[in-house]
Protein: Adenine deaminase
Amino acid sequence: MAAASPMPLAELHLHIEGTLEPELIFALAERNGIELPYANLDELRSRYEFTDLQSFLDLYYANMAVLRTEQDFADMTRAYLARAAAAGVRHAEIMMDPQAHLSRGVSLETCVNGVASVLATSEEEFGVSTLLIAAFLRDLSEDSALEVLEGLLAMNAPIAGIGLDSAEVGNPPSKFTRLFARAGEAGLRKIAHAGEEGPPSYIVEALDVLAVERIDHGIRCMEDPELVERLVNDRVPLTVCPLSNVRLRAVDMLAAHPLPAMLAAGLNVSVNSDDPAYFGGYVDSNFAQLESVLGLSEFDRVRLAANSIRSSFASEERKQELLAELSG
Ligand SMILES: Nc1ncnc2[nH]cnc12
Ligand SMILES: [Zn+2]
Structure:
């Protein structure tokens, strides 16, 4: 008997650099003549024990050293799409961190074109429609972000929107007021990480000051009942990443994850993998573990998938197509 096909959904919170699997890190290092500070795969894997967001970011940025050519970015993107398609992902909104490559001497053209060349044919090749989102590193200056955004606009980069990521605490959304205003003028969609490690007030700022349309993570909203009421009333999408939250110790264990309470409160939540090569699984593993540990029901699974499709920036036609598949 053929295996049941996975539930169709949209992945809205995914860092393409976070899909760089250990095997590909070694393959790209060899291809590019880069000496890694790990003798073998096991030694690299032994570093995947994180105590907080920063301890992960240190390894995430260090491992990017192997990404040098357009082909490297294309290979990483192709590997993600193949794996995501197997997990049921039918639409993906993919973040990349251009500043993390520019600082290593890799040009905007190299990193953007390498990813975008694969996304351009993702629907035909993998059955996954895609959009690219340029994310900006909030621990760098706003001027740096503005300069990179102008570079992306000047090269007519095929980006649908901008995001805000990296070390959250101490780098509030309001630090990037001009960046998000400029993105709005340029007709770009706007999202930001907020309330992952940072306080609920960062979620409020991202909405009020940056006018974002979606919040990445947002789990700490649960500490502020008034904010929860607002997010429910406005149907603000929260792209939750359960395995990421456990691995980065934003929550103690999956059994204590706020997702069931968020669903019960009526929040518009979806399930996403964030940096699947680092956090123990793609979106299907996130769902499987939620089911086994939290007893997530079939009803909630379908609701989460429908939320992901409705909260995406896909065309209305594509959304209807995917919603029909989900209900069929
Ligand atoms: N979970 C995360 N939070 C903030 N920045 C990130 N960059 C990649 N993954 C991230
Ligand atoms: Zn993220």
